[in-house]
From TrEMBL:
Protein name (database record): Phosphoenolpyruvate-protein phosphotransferase
Shown segment, full-protein numbering: 255 to 576 of 576
Domain PEP-utilising enzyme C-terminal: 4-293
Molecular function terms, GO-annotated: kinase activity; metal ion binding; phosphoenolpyruvate-protein phosphotransferase activity
Keyword set, alphabetical order: Cytoplasm, Kinase, Magnesium, Metal-binding, Phosphotransferase system, Pyruvate, Sugar transport, Transferase, Transport
Annotated binding of Mg(2+), by residue: 183, 207
Active site positions: 254
Known role: General (non sugar-specific) component of the phosphoenolpyruvate-dependent sugar phosphotransferase system (sugar PTS). This major carbohydrate active-transport system catalyzes the phosphorylation of incoming sugar substrates concomitantly with their translocation across the cell membrane. Enzyme I transfers the phosphoryl group from phosphoenolpyruvate (PEP) to the phosphoryl carrier protein (HPr).
Subcellular location: Cytoplasm
Domain of life, per lineage: Bacteria
Gene Ontology biological process terms from the UniProt entry: phosphoenolpyruvate-dependent sugar phosphotransferase system
Entry EC number(s): 2.7.3.9
Taxonomic path: Bacteria, Pseudomonadati, Pseudomonadota, Betaproteobacteria, Rhodocyclales
């Protein structure tokens, strides 16, 4: 099966009715570049930079980060590379001493909240990112935004880092796109607040499902209740795709749903045009969309989204997939 899929490596990814779809890779560092090449992905949709910080006692400095980011940007030769600022906290704790004990880590100081509470660490990362921007098409992505003030503070820090670097005579790309991850229900329900602030949105469905259903994705005792097809989850995903697209932002999904062939047609029918996934899933998802017809799927998916009985809805999604 794998070898048949390999034949699709250089086939342009578009639906039967000619709708172009971007298939991007989720990576954890420069070591994943070989997987991106094997799949011929259209770029990187999620670079989880916190892996640079984990499993060590010290923090990576500006130069070390710069090297890691630059390596990926250069290897992608002009294709978009979406680098997420560090998403530490909750299930991705740093192994540094003196970490604060949190009563409820998933609802505590994680992702952009952590970054804004540790401005020196954040500034170092932003400087490394902007320096690397000279070597390819960098997009900076901010995780777990719930309030626009968080985004505004991050944008201000990015502008400051840029001014500093230019004054130090560093080379920086003229244009670096900034985007927000939509992984908190509050953000998904208020997409309008992102307009004019960012140019792209990326749905982190792993966390969006966890926060919508109030199910800790790391707790075995409740994990059976974790359900991508809960009607509320599907409403948030399709609402984000529609509102974001209408407001002129590009929208992608970078959670596990994007790499699961059971959901490819559902997401296509919702209007999604950018999927980001583990690079080893790219060709299987491409195979799915090569056989899908968007104009036929869109009205079917609209009907599915109106279904109120979860069992019927699930059955309809499964029929869609086969
Ligand atoms: C997500 O939440 O869907 C996501 C892509 O981010 P992570 O899994 O790294 O939290
Ligand atoms: Mg997440």
């Amino acid at each position: 099966k794998r070898s048949r899929l390999k034949l699709l490596r250089d086939t342009p990814s578009s639906t039967l009715d000619g709708r172009a779809i971007a298939l991007l890779a989720n990576i954890e560092g420069p070591g994943d570049v070989t997987h991106i090449r094997a799949a011929n992905a259209d770029g990187v949709g999620l670079y989880r930079t916190e892996f640079l910080f984990m499993g060590r006692e010290d923090l990576p400095g500006e130069d070390e980060q710069f090297e890691a980011y630059r390596t990926v940007l250069k290897a992608l030769a002009g294709r978009p590379v979406t680098i997420r600022t560090f998403d530490v906290g909750a299930d991705k704790m740093l192994s540094m001493p003196n970490q604060r004990e949190e009563p409820n880590p998933a609802l505590g100081l994680r992702a952009i909240r952590f970054s804004l509470a540790e401005p020196q660490m954040f500034r170092t990362q932003l400087r490394a990112l902007l320096r690397a921007s000279a070597y390819g098409q960098l997009r900076i992505m901010i995780p777990m935004v719930s309030h626009v003030q968080e985004l505004d503070q991050a944008l201000t820090m990015i502008a400051l880092a840029r001014d500093e670097l230019l004054a130090e005579r560093h080379r920086i790309a003229d244009r670096v796109e900034i985007g927000a991850m939509i992984e908190v229900p509050a953000a998904a329900l208020a997409i309008g607040m992102f307009k004019k602030r960012v140019s792209f949105l990326s749905l982190g469905t792993n966390d969006l499902i966890q926060y919508t259903l109030a199910i800790d994705r790391t707790d075995d005792a409740v994990v059976h209740l974790y359900d991508p097809l809960h009607p509320a989850v599907l409403k948030l995903i399709s609402g984000t795709i529609q509102a974001g697209t209408r407001l002129g932002m590009s929208v992608s999904v970078c959670g596990e749903m994007a790499g699961d062939p059971n959901y490819t047609r559902l997401l296509l029918g919702m209007g999604l045009r950018e999927f980001s996934m583990h690079p080893t899933n790219v060709l299987e998802i491409k195979q799915q969309l090569l056989h899908a017809d968007y104009s036929e799927l869109a009205p079917r998916v609209q009907r599915i989204l109106r279904m109120e009985e979860p069992a019927r809805l699930r059955e309809a999604v499964m029929r869609l997939a086969n």
